Amino acid sequence: MSTALRRQTRIGVALAAAIIVCWLAIHISGIFFFRWSVGMIPVAAAMVLVQTWLSTGLFIIAHDAMHGALAPTHPRLNRAIGTVSLALYACLSYAALLPQHHDHHRHAGGAGDPDFHAGDPSLAGWFLQFFRTYYTHGQIVRITIVALIYTLLLGAPLGNIVIFWAIPALGAVAQLFVFGTWMPHRERAAPFADHHRTHSLSIGPIVSLLTCFHFGGYHHEHHLSPGTPWWGLPARRRDLADQSRG
Fold this sequence. Notes:
With 246 residues, the protein is mainly α. It has one domain (3-227). Helix content is 69%, strand content 0%. Helix 2 (41-66) packs antiparallel against helix 3, helix 2 (41-66) packs across helix 7 and helix 5 (123-134) crosses helix 7 (158-185). It starts with a helix and ends with a helix.
């Protein structure tokens, strides 16, 4: 096993652990311990914004796991972290999403791509197709069961569940769709560079990190090198540029 892959595993697992721990801290404190007052409204708003970004991060962790890029030296750990991340995010099934995402890479921007629009490239039409693809009745049942446990057994206020779990999860869906699917894969005046049918957004590394953990600003690089984890995409762009010059 190469030193580079061991390093990738160490960094990937450490970053995943940090994101999961921070997400759980806001999730638990917001749902079970947050007490409302006028002065606490700005605090709640900040918590929701941060939790939305962290929820996007949970999906990106699972996405890296789907490519074996999270912990390449430990496949079982790789899959376990991906499974837990999707469950925390919105009770999503890793086993169900795994083949769908690989279909996206095999058929990017065409028939057979579950992330592509079904004939309506508008933002609203494409998002509706995206939502229908990934949100199932089984997921809604699982979310309902968790919410009932939180409220009936653990005494959590329903409003707190909505504000500190549902709203960040839906905000993350919007981030993932707009910056990770719609903007990179929609057709523009400039043609696509290759058969991956995707663009990288010109938004700079900081904005790229804040919007979608680099899956907007470096989306083409991801399709060229799906084994590169989210945190390695800026360096991968530099490597690809050096190779093209060489």
